Amino acid sequence: MRIVVIGGTGHIGTFLIPRLVLAGHDVICVSRQERKPYLAHPAWKSVTMVAIDRDKAEEINMFGTQIRNLSPNVVIDLICFTLESARSLVEALEGHIQHFIHCGTIWVHGHSEVVPTDETQFRKPICDYGTQKAAIENYLLMLARKTGFPATVLHPGHIVGPGWFPVNPIGTVNPEPFKLLAEGKELVLPNLGMETLHHVHADDVAAAFCNALNNWNNAVGESFHIVSPQALTLRGYANAVASWFGKRANLSFLPWEEWKHTVSESEAEETWDHIAHSPNCNIEKARRLLNYNPHYSSLKAIEESVKHFITY
Are 131 and 202 within 8 A, CB to CB? Predict the structure, then answer.
């Protein structure tokens, strides 16, 4: 099939595009061409690279037409963040493609309430990112049911892989907590450290997109959680990281209202976003309908990423 991947040089695309090429597909990568994939792979030599600035193209209502003119059978959209953006693309593609796969987020759920969270739970997003993604999901799935538009939505967790730092045990992407744990120094966690994070390796996400392609009948009109088999508590995460360096985690705890003053305002906001959500998602639907079987646990995925930067 002829597959257009929008935003294909990022975290997911680094692993997805080589998988698609090796599966025999004709792959077109659409991006601004401002960066290379995180990892080199010989499959990229077979990829058609198309430079489009989505924001600028959408300003003149041309992005959807530009994608349609590439004559795809399948469009995979990895970088759509607003309902308006999704709608303009879909309206240009409707009636012209066999499958449309949108990358969502588990943050459509907002605060975790009944855990593990499954896909049937009512959407109560608590941030603009989650709100926009929930609106896109609702639009695409309603369109699939009303008109037959072949949409699928995949909701990854905190994506991790070699080449970028993972969300750390305090819910930021600062490498400092890893350094403190490696050196056996004190790491202060918010509250009791029982809030959760739910990571997923970028290659497992890539595999899920391929599985959605290969299970079209089960995938169209549906959304799926794409995460590791189990979430991590902040406390458990920190203990595991320390053990990689032969240390015992030296942890202390502060109530949130005190803890937030121990870091910068931007870091406090980032931490709050993660612990307020405290995601813990179920993947049984993806296992059953897409044959999604993640290779990486949360800790295995995180360790691979950390090893990319730190030798121990």
Answer: no
State pLDDT tens for residues 100-151: 999 999 999 999 999 999 999 999 999 999 999 999 999 999 999 999 999 9
In a domain, 310, yes or no: no
Number of domains in the chain: 1
In percent, how much of the chain has pLDDT > 70?
99
Contact by Cβ (8 Å): 234, 171: yes
- Those residues with Cβ within 8 angstroms of residue 170's Cβ, 6 or more apart along the chain or in another chain: 177, 187, 189, 190, 234, 263, 267, 271
Q: What's the CATH code of the domain at 205?
A: 3.40.50.720
Buried b (16+ CB within 10 A) or exposed e, 171-203: bbebeebbebbbeeeebbbbeebebbbbbbbbb
Task: Give the per-residue pLDDT at 308.
Answer: 84
What does the alpha-carbon distance between residue 263 and residue 271 come to, in Å, rounded to a whole number? 10
For residue 35, tell me if it sits in a domain. yes
Q: Which amino acid is at 5?
A: V
Whole-number pLDDT of residue 35: 84
